[in-house]
Write a structure and sequence with these properties.
56 residues
């Protein structure tokens, strides 16, 4: 009977919805951070190659 309660079903639906959105946002933030780090590394390699230095 508890599972069939309207309040419980709405609460569970909200938890699943916003939990899923939170997870999706966290995945996107991590993906963006990895991309930015990789781009910074490429820029550093490019700059050091132009200056005739070896990358650190």
């Amino acid at each position: 009977m508890f599972v069939a309660s309207e309040a419980f079903s709405k609460t569970a639906g909200l938890v699943i919805t916003f939990g899923g959105l939170g997870l999706l946002v966290n995945i996107l933030v991590v993906y963006i951070a990895v991309q930015v780090r990789g781009e910074h590394q490429q820029n550093e390699e490019y700059r050091s190659a132009r200056n005739g230095q070896s990358p650190p």
